[in-house]
Amino acid sequence: MKTTEFIWKNGKLVPWAEATTHVLSHALHYGTGVFEGVRAYDTANGPSIFRAKLHFDRLIDSAKIIEMKSLFTSTQLLDATKDLIVQNKLKSCYIRPLLYFGYGEMGLNPGNNPVDAVIAAWEWGTYLGEEGLKNGIRCKISSWARLDSRIMPPLAKSTANYLNSALAKREAVSCGFDEAILLNINGTIAEGPGENLFLVKNGCLYTNSAADCALQGITSQSIIQVAKDLGIPFEYKSMIRDELFLADELFFTGTAAEVTPIREIDGRIIGSGKRGSITETIQNKFFEIVSGKDTKYSDWLTPCS
Ligand code: PPE
Fold first, then answer.
1. For position 53, what pLDDT does the model report?
2. Nearest residue (CA) to ligand 1, atom 10
3. Average pLDDT of span 284-299
4. Residues 118-170: pLDDT tens digits?
5. What is the pLDDT of residues 163-177, one digit of tens each?
6. What is the pairing mode between strands 234-236 and 33-35?
7. Is residue 232 over pLDDT 90?
8. Which residues contact 49 (CB under 8 A, 6 or more apart)?
9. Which of 216, 255, 260, 282 to mutate to test the pocket of ligand 1 (most atoms within 8 A of CB)?
10. Quick one: pLDDT at residue 111?
11. CA 105 – ligand 1 centroid, Å
């Protein structure tokens, strides 16, 4: 990975190599952390964070779900991120804030352990490749089910949840695919390991809701708004696997994945087997918005200075 000069830790900027933690930190053993994935884009106003407030508010919400009290507010963490980007002289970057139960006591109850806070930012290009953004990716329906809210909290970006995602991702890649699609334990579509899923059928756009155990994606929420503004009909809907096979177009959304078309699932060609026209329209608009070129959405971007 590309490193930078500083990482923010518990209120201070520390050199990248010194942002370390004790091996007996609670989160390392039990997955008791929450994180965010945020991007800043290069715009005419300098590096600008996409939907910054929503991301830091979701971080605090994730902490609330796992009963963790952050020592920093959403606003303080956002201010720290802006400073970090400026100090690291980054133009565009991926931002990873993390709150975790640190070193103190072992045992499952994290209650008495300190809550450590870190924010790192580094240059991270396309998540599923330039080629994937343009021509679409190949997915595998995972043999791993997406975690259910009776087992783990799907709306929290908790570090523990991501073993579920990592297992699905590894399986898909080792079977020769680019990415996984997970069903939930009721058999409807949940999401990708780090992406929400959208379907286009007969000109209408669909995605699922929290009831299907999908993370409530901030990119997804933004795309729904963009679709409305573009006059593309949209509905929330639970989906089964067959509907994916019959879709005209499918695409993933996510901070890391941005808007990535899906061209194949388990060897079956989806739609035309290429990026569909509605996907392309939405994708183009997304990149215009994040780069600050469509000023109608300028309040979705927070400049760093
Ligand atoms: N579902 C999951 C499970 C998920 O992790 C993400 C983001 C999304 C949906 C999309 O949410 P949003 O970014 O708010 O639109 N995944 C993050 C982590 C990816 C990683 O590999 O790490 C991300 O995209 O930053």
1. 98
2. 254
3. 98
4. 999 999 999 999 999 999 999 999 999 999 999 999 999 999 999 999 999 99
5. 999 999 999 999 999
6. unpaired
7. yes
8. 38, 39, 40, 55, 78, 81, 82, 85, 95, 301, 302, 304
9. 255
10. 87
11. 30
228, 195: one domain:
yes
* Distance (Å, whole) CA 195 – CA 219: 9
What is the number of structural domains in the chain? 2
Cα 146 to middle of ligand 1, angstroms: 14
Residues 69 and 98 in one domain: yes
* Residue nearest atom 7 of ligand 1, based on CA coordinates: 194
Cβ 90 vs Cβ 47: under 8 Å: yes
CB burial of 124-160 (b: ≥16 within 10 Å; e: otherwise) equals beebbeeebbeebbbbbbbebbbbeeeebbbbbbbbb
The CATH number that applies at residue 192 is 3.20.10.10
pTM of the entire predicted model: 0.98
